[in-house]
Every structure is written in C-alpha cells, then in structure tokens.
Amino acid sequence: MERVRVNKDECIGCGACQAIAPNVFSLNDKGFAEVIKDKIPEELTADVMDALENCPTNAIEEVNEDNKKE
Questions:
Q1: Ranges of each domain in the chain
Q2: pLDDT tens for the 70 residues of the chain, in order
Q3: Residue 63: helix, strand or coil by DSSP?
Q4: What is the pLDDT of residue 1?
Q5: Cβ partners under 8 Å of residue 1, min gap 6
Q6: Are 16 and 59 in contact (CB under 8 A)?
C-alpha cells in the first residue's frame, strides 16, 4: 500500500481513522477525514490497513500508482 484517499461522499466524520492512524488521517474544519500523508510510510501501513478495514462507511480507498481505486 502506497497511497490512500478518503471518499468525501462516504465519510461521516466519525474519527475512527484518525484514532487508529493519527499520523496519516486528520479531521478537517468541517469534521470530515482527510489524508495528511502523500505516501504511506512502510511503518504505518498496518495502522492504515486497520483504519481502512474499520471505517464504518468504507470511505477509505487504496489507490494504485495511476490514482485509480484498486
């Protein structure tokens, strides 16, 4: 996993991703999640996968090198 994005149409701003991986996710001024790392460092991959798997609305998406959803 190199990159992820948050589907803003699906995010409900619950903060689970930020709680699990605070070095990768943050809540913006509107209370919705956003990715704060351009590329995911290897040491944070497990946390990001945990956040992705535990997002209640599946708003976190892994993207490939072409910025397409995998």
A1: 3-61
A2: 899 999 999 999 999 999 999 999 999 999 999 999 989 999 999 999 999 999 999 999 999 766 555 5
A3: strand
A4: 84
A5: 40, 45, 48, 49, 62
A6: no
CA distances from 70 to 22, 28, 60, 62 (A): 23, 25, 11, 6
CATH of domain 3-61: 3.30.70.20
Return d(Cα 22, Cα 51) in angstroms, integer: 10
pLDDT at 52: 97
**d(Cα 61, Cα 1) in Å, to the nearest integer?**
10
For residues 27-49, one letter each, b for 16 or more C-beta atoms within 10 angstroms of the residue's C-beta and e for the rest, the string is eeeeebbbbeeeebeeebeebbb
